[in-house]
């Protein structure tokens, strides 16, 4: 179609931008209602025909329109539903004729069925209480926002407060969450002096006995630390221990690598040595539980259950002067329940050898050299912390390394002797204040927080591990919402061209990680759709060609859509279903028209940006797929990684910890692989004001009756030991 053949009225555009958006939104709602009526028919007809044919009906023609089926009652119900929900959609009865393959309704039904068969998972998503509540709140808010735009030409956020006041509420909540994150400990440590062997007190430790045996030994060797220049505690025996150690390797992916320039140390495996030192004898594990695995007390059933830490001895390591060291690395967890490591430094004199542990720009320095002759010193930290051992310049730095695992006591529903009460936390009081304010999120809303710590949320066991393996500030945040009776869940969020969520300048959210991966860039070519929308705004009508010749025919507004993400399967409830369709529906060309307004003839490809958040329907395990192309389409992504497209989530923190979501083939001049990434996030569904209050007008401090389900820079897997 040549632009110059269609003159522009001299008085300027037919509609202002506000009027144009109002018309588009009105048509958008009508189309969603019509498609919801059609979906109800298609699902009912499909189920009826499946019973008769006992086969997958997705492989057959549109239900009710092949030679073997009629579905007359369902067809009549379809026409009744359309007349009830969109009575003025079709101009005449001919447009609604179901026996005419060329009628507008019949073409719409066939088109809808083709979308189903190309992506059947869109309509067969498993529903859970959390997912239902999440989609319900966001779809109602989406409709409310569109209705306001349609009526007034203005936009409205999810709160009844003035925009500035609500933004300040969100900023303050973000500040408290980030403060909780910065104050939450990712490492802890302590010192135990060497003293008498006193079983009544664990404030001091008896001298440490080490026993080891190599393949050539007929009996075990024994060394007592600290050295006392006796038969079992002398420099000669110490050197024998050092000499009997084998070179220590480190993990790189699935391989053990020996590189003395990266790690210079000796090691003994657990089948080669034993010791009389046990961390549990000195309250070390209780301290670690209190600081790294805080127990959260609520007045209700504790959905997190009672969690304990156990320590499993992993290695004995010796770093000797003048060159013992271990450069910066992040440990590889050895099991799904491992959350960290415990390093115990035995009493043996050395210099240098500081242990530096880092997380989110913070660093903890464990400098053990000055007290190395007379104390046992220890440090514990999370598995995703970067750490290093600086060069040991003199002596021998001898350590026992333990893997820390989280366990759950069977049959305990309430936490005994709680350490932390969420009611004492500033975050708890602020969130409770939000829930008690009828002007904040009066109609409900959804708050999103990306996890501060890395979790293997793309592992096969992720749905069992989360939320129970949450730690630090993530555990506090999850527990505060849970203790206030709020639906909360750990979910995966998929990036789109490196952006996880829409940019929000008011809250300072960029939607991307600080150190991103090499992302797949996605481009949409909606040039014709954009030009048609622009033409309608200028002229008040569209034009289409019937065949390949003759003058164009004027039509009303006809929108092209992209339905993104899965849809909850409430097919028999049309009022609910059309709102969920609205949630994932984008008008082709509209974003481009708003971002690049006016005549821009050279504009063709649009670098697609997220208009909502792509939230996985569950925690999907990582996989590889042979489906793909030069640019993997959204339909192809939905087929392998089902997700909801959710505009309207209020994101208060930036994405942080990435994991590989899936890898797929790409086809260009040569075949290659591309990877999409996801981050774990905590999502809280805030109900409307009238649901937040109980009969006495107080915030109901009880866990919701729904699911207590759980889950990203990419986890680095470089080293396994210390």
Automatic annotation (TrEMBL):
The annotated region (Disordered) lies at 694-722
Q: Which domain of life is it from?
A: Eukaryota
Specify the Fe2OG dioxygenase domain's residue ranges.
308-406
**Any matching Pfam family:** 2OG-FeII_Oxy_3
Q: Where is the composition biased (Basic residues)?
A: 713-722
What name does the UniProt record give this protein? Oxidoreductase
Origin organism is Byssochlamys spectabilis
Q: What is the lineage of its organism?
A: Eukaryota, Fungi, Dikarya, Ascomycota, Pezizomycotina
